[in-house]
Amino acid sequence: MQVTSKDHVLKVVTMTRFHFVAGLPTAGARCLMALLAQNPRFCAASDSPAERVFNVLSAGRENQDHPLSGISSDTRSAVLRASLDAVHHARPIASVVFDNNIRWLSHVTTLAELFPLSRFVIMVRDPARIAAEMAQEAGVVTSPHALMSEHGVIGAPIQLVHDALSSPASKRLLLIDYDRLLTDPERVLDSLYAFVGEPHFTHDFRALPAREVPPQAITGHLARRVTTPSDTTSRRAQKADLPIWRRSSGSEATMLLPETG
User: Fold this and answer.
1) Sheet arrangement for strand 120-124
2) CATH code, 131
3) In the chain, which end has fewer C-beta atoms inside a 10 angstrom radius, N or C?
4) Does the keyword Transferase apply (predicted)?
5) Is the pLDDT higher at 18 or at 259?
6) HSE on the CB side for 227, CA within 13 Å?
């Protein structure tokens, strides 16, 4: 049933839960969204204009020349909340919205305040695999420093993931490693449903791609991760070689990482 009357608007806004999907590039967010879209209760959208609209409106908080700079904080918050409702206005009544955009990572703190019932799903992969694939697709050797720099394609979102994991909203974060989704999709989806408080739904996993095999070019790099440390120095070096989410032991986020051993 589509929203066709103004009489339904307030009720739909109240009933709708908005969840946000983000993560590293090529880390399986689209794959996850395709699975979620199988559930008729869910409105699962990638590449919607939601983040772009939200970002433009959010800029009014700091920019004195912005048209929204002269309104109260409560009104600005209401406008930001309404922007998500407006973008997804055609959703069925009582649906649950999952909006996927890598740039949601930069809005986690604000979104957590605006949408108290929201949850954040962050998809990650081994950064070395991402870098190897990017270099292979480009047909040239890509500088690891450029990719992992503060403004790099991989480095920038990794820093945002780190910030999210250490933020007050971390308990509302579900971090999923793409490898775990591919090898154990049923349990991953069960965990996701429990995390967002939705009833179980039976998904069809046949369209999932096969589990990835690490590119040969980074085998040695990965091998260092399974070397048994012989002293304190080597253990520290091994830990430093792990992705940031494997070093965030103090985070309250729920993490579904590849099983080892």
Assistant:
1) 42-46, 96-100, 17-23, 120-124, 173-177, 254-256
2) 3.40.50.300
3) C
4) yes
5) 18
6) 19
* Residue 149 neighbours by CB distance under 10 Å: 14
101 domain residue, yes or no: yes
What whole-number distance in Å separates Cα of residue 34 and Cα of residue 125? 18
What the block records as the tokens of 7 is 């009489």
Percent with pLDDT over 90 in the chain = 54
Which stretch of DSSP H or E encloses residue 42?
strand 42-46
d(CA 196, CA 144): 36
Contact, 138 vs 60, CB < 8 A? no
What gap in Å lies between CA 127 and CA 131, rounded to an integer? 6
What percentage of the chain exceeds 70 in pLDDT? 75
- Say yes or no to pLDDT of 237 above 60: no
* pLDDT at 117 exceeding the cut of 50: yes
User: Are 99 and 20 a contacting pair, CB within 8 Å?
Assistant: yes
Closest CA to 83 of 45, 115, 49, 53: 53
